[in-house]
């Protein structure tokens, strides 16, 4: 059984036929022949309990941590959904964004091991995290994130639109983390945040709203219009706003190709060599260039069909280049500075 279990039960009988099994136990009822043999402490309202199982001990520990993160995230999100509504009775956009806090922003490094055991070929791990430890770690992470965001926001003054666009990408992610930490503290610390923190968050949100209309444009050369959808899908995945063939943008993503056509052995051949380039619009600086190399395809029917086959092959190359994680895609396109 590889699923994770939440400790929501107080007593279960542990089968003594299993080695290392002690009583009482706390887990969901085991499936088929599997018996879970972990101990349970007395459950407390100010402590999170989580568990994980896997074929290896290390993976079981990882699954338990993931379970812990999911519990905290779900609890905080549920609170937001129940309390943060606008005048129409719907969640405001800000509350929705906060409710979708990234799991990686939740600090669970101070958790403690409750118990671990092995039953048959499966390892089981139980961990706990008290609210005080969560609050302490969250405060430290929030302070660090705000320092970094202040530094990034300080670069915006007198910056060009392109530079504001770059900072918008970075500050948007920092804003998500800051709000995730903020929501955890409001839920478990019960103390109001300092005026300095709330004032900075307000300043940050004002900048994000004002710079949110900055976008990039997509341009495709002759014979490559069919590949526009591949570019659009990649940008949507990376949550990068874009326009089509527009000059009112901070940067242009251009896909162009050279085409050669020839007829040989009663077949039509088309060779395409495409280049993906990203330019900064205000200075025309080349930000990124990727050579997709040659693709050659043929058809016995027509040169148009040969071109269509070549475009499909080129689309696969382009998709392979752009199908990395959204965070990495911005760097591939030259739209974000690589971290030092």
Protein described:
This protein is of the alpha+beta class and 340 residues long. The protein has eight helices and nine strands. It has helices spanning 57-83, 93-99, 131-154, 161-188, 195-211, 228-237, 303-322, 326-332, and strands spanning 5-6, 47-54, 112-119, 122-130, 216-220, 242-244, 251-264, 267-280, 286-299. The strands form two sheets. It has a five-stranded mixed beta sheet. A four-stranded antiparallel beta sheet has the order 1-2-4-3. The longest helix has 28 residues, at 161-188. It is flat.
Considering the chains and any ligands shown, give keywords for the structure:
340 residues; alpha+beta; Endonuclease I-creI; 8 helices; 41% helix
Secondary structure: elements and pairs:
Blueprint: E1 5-6, E2 47-54, H1 57-83, H2 93-99, E3 112-119, E4 122-130, H3 131-154, H4 161-188, H5 195-211, E5 216-220, H6 228-237, E6 242-244, E7 251-264, E8 267-280, E9 286-299, H7 303-322, H8 326-332
Parallel strand pairs: 5-6, 5-7
Antiparallel strand pairs: 1-2, 2-4, 3-4, 7-8, 8-9
Helix pairs in contact: 1-2, 3-4, 3-5, 4-5
- Name of the CATH class of the largest domain: Alpha Beta
Briefly note the structural class of the backbone.
alpha+beta
Strand order of the largest sheet: 6-5-7-8-9
What is the correct CATH architecture of the largest domain?
2-Layer Sandwich
Helix content: 40-55%
Overall tally of domains = 3
How much is the radius of gyration in Å?
Answer: 27 Å
């Amino acid at each position: 059984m590889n699923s994770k279990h939440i400790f929501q039960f107080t007593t279960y009988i542990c089968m003594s036929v299993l080695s290392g099994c002690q009583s009482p136990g706390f887990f969901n009822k085991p499936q088929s022949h599997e018996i879970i043999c972990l101990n349970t402490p007395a459950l407390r309202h100010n402590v999170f309990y989580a568990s994980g199982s896997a074929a290896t001990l290390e993976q079981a520990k990882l699954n338990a941590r993931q379970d812990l993160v999911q519990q905290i995230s779900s609890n905080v999100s549920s609170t937001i959904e129940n309390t943060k509504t606008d005048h129409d009775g719907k969640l405001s956009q800000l509350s929705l964004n906060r409710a979708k806090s990234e799991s990686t922003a939740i600090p669970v490094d101070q958790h403690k091991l409750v118990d671990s055991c092995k039953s048959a070929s499966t390892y089981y791990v139980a961990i706990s995290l008290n609210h005080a430890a969560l609050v302490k770690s969250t405060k430290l992470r929030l302070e660090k994130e705000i320092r970094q965001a202040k530094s990034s926001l300080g670069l915006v003054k007198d910056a060009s639109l392109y530079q504001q666009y770059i900072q918008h990408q970075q500050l948007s992610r920092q804003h998500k983390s800051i709000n995730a930490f903020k929501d955890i503290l409001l839920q478990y610390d019960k103390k109001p945040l300092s005026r300095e923190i709330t004032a900075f968050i307000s300043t940050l949100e004002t900048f994000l709203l004002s710079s949110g209309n900055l976008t990039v444009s997509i341009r495709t050369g002759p014979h490559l219009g069919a590949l526009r959808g591949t570019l659009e899908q990649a940008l949507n995945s990376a949550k990068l706003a874009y326009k089509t063939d527009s000059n009112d943008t901070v940067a242009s993503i251009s896909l162009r190709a050279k085409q050669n056509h020839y007829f040989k052995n009663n077949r039509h051949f088309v060779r395409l060599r495409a280049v993906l380039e990203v330019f900064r619009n205000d200075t025309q600086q080349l930000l990124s260039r990727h050579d997709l190399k040659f693709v050659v395809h043929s058809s016995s029917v027509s040169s148009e069909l040969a071109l269509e086959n070549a475009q499909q092959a080129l689309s696969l190359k382009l998709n392979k280049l752009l199908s990395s994680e959204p965070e990495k895609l911005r760097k591939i396109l030259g739209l974000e500075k690589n971290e030092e």
